[in-house]
């Protein structure tokens, strides 16, 4: 085949094609005119891949540029810099980004003689920072001996050697669109079975191995199974960010739903690379184009519609196009150049934590930099401990875990929280010191929130228990949102695991209901329950549990009836009074009148009486509504004191939701 014909077919120039072919692994000379027919198909396919990758590269470059501008803007907003109660001069200089020698000179001018490794207090630091035009705010005490970087970005900036790491992927989307099915299918087809085959625990992450179509190498992809958007919020609140890529599942037999939009919101806030998996394409009613049209309508125009959104039609249930989806993930990962230093500072984020009957507190984390080893002294949010064991995602003991690896940590003293950051400390004693500082901070926060929150008249006290920590946190966040000016749900006790006899006794003593998620009463607790009028409910679906609480709260708060203004009218004429009724004519000045409106009559600004409507007319016909500026006839009952020239104000009574 002629090079120029092939170039035309590939929508490029012959010289560009000839320049790229050797780079793509085809032995074609720089000045070739003909291409061997047997190579054409392979070249077309490789060229399409190459194009796809170039598009992705451009997209990622533009995303990175955007995120850098955003960070610059954030910095430019002159946020106060947090300074702990005491800090070394060197650290202080680093925080305010001023040369340490200049800081020392400024300190001397202020009458403080301090070397770079000596500590100064917040008040001194604040004055010096002000002299440099830098705003500061009192921050938390420094953690004893751990690195002071709080962000994975800071850690990575300091690492000298970085190597590629596997991508971390989350699957998101509306309920029933197929997230679980997709994760299960990938698990079945791309995760090698354990020897025992018995993964009984709740595993919140796994690694799939996928063949890279370019290199033929098997590459790992880490999938995490987050309990929901709330978990993302929690993680962000604690500085955690684990995922790189989001697969947004949208069902081709449905449409973009509210939860799809919520997911997109999270994906954009978290700055995740996006792949839309248009699922259930095996169904006869599937309509891929309809989904693409809807995506275009919300500024996510698919690539084949001239936009930038990568869409892969799949059937999660029948395993169709799953390889293509996973290859796209690898492609995105390659061009995103996801890197970490396995030998560097340890940093990881907890994605799930619970108490295991046999193992005690366990936490599953994604390692984001460095490597965690059995025997390490680890600080993890407000908990920590010496690592007694590490388990991989198939619950097999492993000696260490490196970047992008999901790992379950054994040996923490208490249960960690979703989003807690994992760091290495020099020895276990440091953990105690740091924990004390944390607990003071938490106590301070608690007193603050207590004084802020006013006591409500109607509350439902509950004891809340769940199977895993992630759900407990998600539920607490959501329950906090169930509020009414006069009522709220009050979680008096929370915890993990089944309801115990203690829970029943406590619930009974304080009149609290026992509300559980994927837990049940122990047999002892069940016996105790039999003789008591205690409410115990358990759910396996989060929103059903929340609906229950909302409904119960509604039941105990008395309905409030409020007045809602409807309109105002001038009385133009008053006709005869017949028994209990008065017939009047008028014009609506503002708003409207309906037959169920109630009225009050005003003369010279003073209210003289009130009543209701027996009939509303317009042009001598009974009607259901008359709006401004139309005239009306009215048969009213009540205080029949109305005169020509009076003003009638209308309202209705409504139940407040
Ligand atoms: P999730 O709520 O998003 O996790 O959705 P699920 O994975 O639980 O799927 C909801 C329902 O859709 C289940 O009955 C699945 O069997 C079904 N489903 C998921 N993927 C497919 C698919 O590709 N084709 C068909 N026909 N059904 C699917």
From TrEMBL:
List the molecular function annotations (GO) for this entry: GTP binding; GTPase activity; translation initiation factor activity
Q: Which domain of life is it from?
A: Bacteria
InterPro entries registered for this protein in UniProt? EF-G-like_DII, IF2_N, P-loop_NTPase, Small_GTP-bd, T_Tr_GTP-bd_dom, TF_IF2_bacterial-like, TIF_IF2, TIF_IF2_dom3
Q: Which PROSITE patterns match?
A: G_TR_2 (PS51722)
Instruction: Enumerate the UniProt keywords alphabetically.
Output: GTP-binding, Initiation factor, Nucleotide-binding, Protein biosynthesis
Cellular component terms (Gene Ontology): cytoplasm
Q: Does the keyword Protein biosynthesis apply?
A: yes
Q: Which residues form the Tr-type G domain?
A: 164-339
Any one Pfam family here would be IF-2
Which family does the similarity line name? Belongs to the TRAFAC class translation factor GTPase superfamily. Classic translation factor GTPase family. IF-2 subfamily.
Free-text function comment from the UniProt entry:
One of the essential components for the initiation of protein synthesis. Protects formylmethionyl-tRNA from spontaneous hydrolysis and promotes its binding to the 30S ribosomal subunits. Also involved in the hydrolysis of GTP during the formation of the 70S ribosomal complex.
Q: What is this protein called?
A: Translation initiation factor IF-2
Q: Which organism is it from?
A: Candidatus Jacksonbacteria bacterium RIFCSPLOWO2_02_FULL_44_20
The taxonomy runs: Bacteria, Candidatus Jacksoniibacteriota
